[in-house]
Amino acid sequence: MAFYFKEPCHTFNEYLLVPGYSSSECTPDNVSLKTPLTKFRKGEQPDITLNIPMTSSIMQSVSNDTLAVALAKEGGLSFIYGSQSIEAEAAMVGRVKAYKAGFVPSDSNIKPDQTLADILELKKKTGHSTVAVTDDGTGTGKLLGVVTSRDYRISRMPVETQVHTFMTPIEKVISAPMGATLSECNDIIWEKKLNALPVLDQDGRLHYFVFRKDYSAHKENASELLDDKKRYMVGAGINTRDYKERIPALLEAGADVLCIDSSEGYSDWQKMTLSWVREQYGDSVKIGAGNVVDGDGFRFLADAGVDFVKIGIGGGSICITRETKGIGRGQATAVIEVAQARDEYYKETGVYVPICSDGGIVYDHHLTLALAMGADFVMLGRYFSRFDESPTNKVNINGQYMKEYWGEGSNRARNWQRYDQGGAKKLSFEEGVDSYVPYAGSLKDNVQTTLYKVKSTMCNCGALTIRELQQKAKLTLVSSTSIVEGGAHDVLLKDSVNNQSK
């Protein structure tokens, strides 16, 4: 006979945190959001600790190398999407590991025989006013000069004027040699009153620019997530099909942690993948798995040797698995049960296996609820897809800027490996949609706002760490009328009045 759960499952939106005592020390500035990413034994420290409890989803429309660098600067971690060729994914990982904070590869480059018109078009395309003039017009060519907005006057120069006639020639360009530290480069910038400093090798080839405007930004990245070689950390998604070829390539490229990307993790396919990793690499390779929605699924993966477990089936904004297959569970209930299983496993074995809430985050406060319910960190797709750094196009829809966002189970992504159950190597039916999300600007600004809200709520609960929040949190289910009461009500919002008058 089928098993029936006694209680209905719930979403984050059905819960509220009840405030607790807040001491004078409970201020957002005193809150630490550090949290374990990988498993560890009692009395030991995890090999990887996140500085903020945020990771980005393993999705084509979310996690590329650009977003990975931006998130690592804030202290989180991206998992590069695996629904691409092994070579392409490894290349993205490699670019993140090769990225040097403060050292910016030049994306505005031109040849000396091109024209002012080309300069203006390039500036319009990239938004950058500093243009490198190289022998081959690439960002790694031999530097011949530099063009900035001070080198030309649109009103006084024909657009046909060739670049070499008005550029600042290399003889007058102050540069730094390869190997110079960021501190040394910044010293040159300030001493020589420069806005940009090119970094050249011994053959005069351009490698990077260091910009004055980035100086304060680098000072602000106190939470950046770095490995022991001071490189940004990055994860990578894998599947249960080509893992024997994909994993070695990703590790060679420098991936710090892997994660099996699957809609359902309670399967022999994941166990076989994890067993192979442990046989080949022991515990040196860090790998997460999922997704599961109950304690049995967690125990299965923990026993298989996983480093962290992802929770969530069907709760993502672009996921229609619950509609098409009738499987899943409310995200809040799933997190609560898996957290209990995690704590029981820790008591039994002395091994703490972190859990990640993946999906179901609609509002910023849902992130805090997930943490309070026991999640060590969250994985976000829609949230990050809205930002400048995500890999999708920004489009204008009915006068509003939007970003494209599609699921891995959609016809657009056709990531059949994620939904593979050992059958035909194809996506038999859709489990995701193709959509738009409102454009929200830069990752940095939005993440800092979100995390300030999280810290403020933690202070309301009298907690200065995520672990303390989990111990002190008091949660209550809310009725439908309570949800209405929690928002603006019984008033006429000025924005709605202004829109109606237009």
UniProtKB/TrEMBL annotation:
EC assignment: 1.1.1.205
UniProt-listed SMART domains: IMPDH
Superkingdom of the organism of origin: Bacteria
Gene3D superfamilies assigned to the protein according to its UniProt record, in alphabetical order: Aldolase class I
PROSITE patterns: CBS (PS51371), IMP_DH_GMP_RED (PS00487)
CBS domain span: 103-163, 167-225
Coiled coil: none
Keyword Metal-binding attached: yes
CC cofactor: K(+)
InterPro entries in the record: Aldolase_TIM, CBS_dom, CBS_dom_sf, IMP_DH, IMP_DH/GMP_Rdtase_CS, IMP_DH_GMPRt
Catalytic activity: IMP + NAD(+) + H2O = XMP + NADH + H(+)
Family designation: Belongs to the IMPDH/GMPR family.
NCBIfam families tied to this protein: PRK07107.1
Name recorded for this polypeptide: IMP dehydrogenase
Species whose genome carries this gene: Caproicibacterium lactatifermentans
